[in-house]
Amino acid sequence: MSFINSSKLDELARRLADSVPESVRAFGRDLEGNFKAVLQSQLSKLDLVSRQEFDVQAAILERTQVKLTAMEARLKEIEARLTPQSAPSLAGLLLDSTRP
Question: How far is the C-alpha of 15 from the C-alpha of 46, rounded, in Å?
Fold first, then answer.
């Protein structure tokens, strides 16, 4: 489980164990260990990614958006040179058809 470090998980398990009534706290470390195991089990079922994986994908998306914008501008320039001014641009038609 790479998205949450062990010390934070230990701290959360310790807090949960401390919140239990004193009469039940006699179980001590077993209770804290059980909380940690349950937390790890439930967190592993979530569809999460690490911060590093998220940052990598965000950077890829940003580069892709920059390239797309440049390609759209280049297509408009090419169309402007190849088509008469009164004809609608292919890029404009493509953009209009992809937007809701």
Answer: 22
20: three-class secondary structure by DSSP = coil
Token pair for 23: 């009469």
Beta carbons of 35 and 16 less than 8 angstroms apart: yes
CA distance 41 to 57: 26
Distance, CA of 28 to CA of 14 (rounded, Å)? 10
**Residues 73, 91 contacting (CB under 8 angstroms):** no
Alpha helices in 1-100 (DSSP H): 6-18, 29-45, 51-82, 90-98
The token pair that represents 84 in the structure block:
């008469």
- Record the pTM: 0.45
Residue type, 53: E
Share of the chain above pLDDT 70, in %: 72
Give the distance, in angstroms, between the CA of residue 26 and the centroid of all CA atoms in the same chain. 41
